[in-house]
Write a structure and sequence with these properties.
The chain is of the alpha+beta class. It is built from 2 helices and 4 strands; from the N terminus they run βαββαβ.
Length: about 80
């Protein structure tokens, strides 16, 4: 199942690497990633991942990271 997720994270050193590491450790394969610098030190990130697991598993793990400020499951693609 392929899913698109939208995140807002603090633009700090290593924040993006921490997100990707958690995704990899949880068994999600990265298909696409777009990051744009937002306002007030934030990054707006769109991630497309694929896994046999439900995307809510990844959302719940990312929500534990201190850099993450907002999470949203965009759409399930396949």
């Amino acid at each position: 199942m392929r899913s698109r997720l939208n995140l807002t994270v603090l633009d700090r050193a290593g924040a993006l690497e921490r997100l990707l590491r958690v995704a990899r450790h949880r068994g999600f394969v990265l298909y696409e990633l777009t990051a744009n610098r937002g306002t007030e030190g934030m990054l707006n990130i769109m991630v497309e991942v694929e896994s046999d697991r439900q995307p809510m598993l990844l959302v719940s793990q990312w929500a534990k990271l201190p850099d993450v400020r907002a999470l949203q499951i965009g759409q399930t693609l396949v």
